Amino acid sequence: MFVQMKKKVRGFTLFEVLMASSLACITLACMVQFFLTQLNQYRLIAGNNQLSENVRIFSKFFEKDTHNSLEFYVFEDLDEALNFTKGTTEVTIPKTGNCVLFVTERGMVSGGRGVVYYVGDQTQVNGVTCYPFYRAIVSFTSQKKISETEEDLSKLPLGYIKSDEDSFSQQFTLLEDTGIFFHVEHKRFGRKTSADYPHVAGCRHGIYVGTTLVQPGLKGEASATPINFCFYSRNPRF
Q1: Phi, psi (degrees; rounded to nearest 5) at 87
Q2: What is the reported pLDDT for 132?
Q3: Distance between CA atoms of 62 and 136, rounded to whole angstroms?
Q4: Distance between CA atoms of 80 and 70, rounded to whole angstroms?
Q5: Residues 6 or more apart whose Cβ sits within 8 Å of residue 181
Q6: Among 54, 202, 211, 237, fewest CB within 10 Å belongs to which?
Q7: Cα 39 vs. chain centroid, distance in angstroms?
Q8: Structural domain that includes position 28
C-alpha cells in the first residue's frame, strides 16, 4: 500500500510583498539621491575649475600686454576703438570704458600690432544672461588706425561677465564715464598727471580692470568671482 505524500507549497503573503517593495523603493530613492548629489557636485567643481582657468588665462595675458605696451587707450566700447585714429582732435579718449587697446609692436605705424580687450554683445548661456569677454590681436594702417573690422577679429574668449550683478551693472553702464577698465597714472618726480597731460614722460601709466567673471552652468546656475587687477606699463617713455 502506497501512501501519496503531498508537498505543501507556501507563497508570499501580501505583507511580505509590500515590505520588499518598500525596501526596494527606499534603496532606489537613496541611489537616485546619491547620483543627483554627485552630479551637482560635479557641475559645481567643473564650473569652478573652468572659471579658475579663465581667470588665470585672462590675468596672464592682461599682465603681459600691459607690461609690453608702448601705449594704450581706453574706450567706451569696441566700435570706439575700431574708429579711433591717433592724432585726430575730434576724438575724446575717456578714462574709463569697456574696451582697452594696447599698442605693442612698432607702435601705430603701418604693419604695427596691438591687442584689444572688449566686451561682446549680450547673450544667453545655459539660461544665464551674460556678456562674453574677448581678446584679439589687431594691426594698424599707415593712418594709425586699426585695419580690422569687428568681423575680421580673430578673438580669444576669456570668459563671461554676468549682466545682473549689482556691482557689474554700476561698472558696465556707460553713463557718467563708467566701465570695467580704468586708466590710472602714478605721479613720479613730482610731475603733473592731470587730464591736460595724458601721456607725459615721468608718469607710470597703468590699467585697472574691475568686474565679475562668471561660468554659466546647467539649469541657470553660475560660478562667479570678482576681478580686480591693476598693472603698469614697463615702457619708460609712456
Answers
A1: 100, -10
A2: 92
A3: 12
A4: 20
A5: 74, 96, 97, 98, 99, 100, 117, 207, 208, 209
A6: 237
A7: 25
A8: 18-232
Tell me the per-residue pLDDT of 140-184, one tens digit each, with 9 for 90 and over: 998 889 999 999 998 999 988 877 655 444 455 545 557 888 887
Beta strands in 22-93 (DSSP E): 71-75
Give the span between the Cα atoms of 220 and 238, in whole angstroms.
44
Rounded distance, CA 207 to CA 73, Å? 9
Q: Is residue 3 part of a domain?
A: no
Residue 50's H or E segment, with its range, is helix 14-67
Report for 28-32, 46-50, 53-57, 192-196: range of highest mean pLDDT: 53-57
For residue 13, is it within any domain? no
C-alpha cell, 153? 577679429
Q: Is residue 5, in this structure, part of any structural domain at all?
A: no
Q: For the residues of 122-185, what is the DSSP string, one character each?
A: -EEETTEEEEEEEEEEEEB-TTSBB---GGG--EEEEEEEESS-HHHHHHH--GGG--SEEEEE
When divided into structural domains, the chain yields a total of 1
pTM score > 0.85 for this model? no
How do residues 176-224 score in pLDDT, each as one tens digit? Answer: 557 888 887 765 544 444 444 444 344 567 888 888 888 887 666 778 8
Residue 2 lies in a domain: no
Does residue 82 sit in helix, strand or coil? helix
The radius of gyration computed from the CA coordinates of the chain, to the nearest angstrom, equals 30
* Predicted confidence (pLDDT) per residue in 72-98, tens digit: 888 888 998 999 888 765 556 667 888
